[in-house]
Amino acid sequence: MSELKRTPLYDRHLAAGAKIVPFAGWEMPVSYSGILDEHKAVRESLGVFDVSHMGRFTLSGPRAAEALDYLTTGGASTLEQGRFIYTMILNERGGVLDDLLVGRSGDSLLIVVNAANLEADFAHMHAWCKHLGGAELVDESRDVALLALQGPGSRAALKKLAGDDRRVDRLAYYRMDDFEIMGRAMTVSRTGYTGELGYEIFVASEKAGELWDKLLELGATPCGLGARDTLRLEVAYPLYGHELDADHTPLEAGLGWVVDLDKEDFIGRDILVKQKEQGVKVRLRGFAASGRDIPRQGYRLLKDGKEVGTVASGSIAPSLGTGIGTAYLPVELAAFGGKLELELRGRTAEVEVVKTPFYKKGTAKD
Q: 128 with 148, same domain?
């Protein structure tokens, strides 16, 4: 096995008492004070995550937007300055190879990809850019760290960081801008994966530790991958390798809004056009367990004793106190209010197909 990588904040995670686990080729903190405490901090006040394991690319050149239009489901060529979009890379069968963020920054496109797919995404994009010409892809992941400041208190904390810059108040959802922080210009995007008001700060790797320390001084609770997962699941944000994979399309995942079928062409488009015309055969749905039964990834879902799906993601929902999960279900069993059985160890428990998000009080768009 190849050696696990470490972010620039690894030593600080150890000093803070983090529990370190292998994740997508990295040694990452899963928790510090505990998942429930960290989850609560983000829902009610302020948390900070090290997400430097995620890939960060820049794409530039006269045909950069054209290249990305073909490689992804979204519209890079119509992207406004300072705006991000959530989009996907598909295979020829319409299956999802990765979900990513793309933002327009000056003459370049800023791309954020999942850690597990970093190398594959770069090779895939680079090959097409080389074939097309006029588009240069650069991997800046080692040089630029990424911190996610999340929670209702994140705007006030960012304003303190940025010297009370009033532009912080005007930074809209899925927009980015440059701010002077600790004497340096840093790109800040109003994005995140918790469902709460939040920002992601792109910082030079050598300054990441200083920024992390400053955020803790401002009252941010250090949070790990465990809380990030429970937070994103409560608001039904999909995670690659769980809700998203190469065998399911964005339409089956209920994410048709990320697909621009008006574009002339992109990888997987023909399959999605056909699927939209004929209708999907499976749908991604959320379900809630009764009592405190906790679904886990891979558990079977049954109808009248017959397997009809497996859990894509499952956990206790700390904000709700009940077990929740997601699964791909046949369309005939995907109606809200439908009842299924969740196979647990040696028994079954009734679950109900419900509308998502499970948690509806998030402040992300406030």
A: no
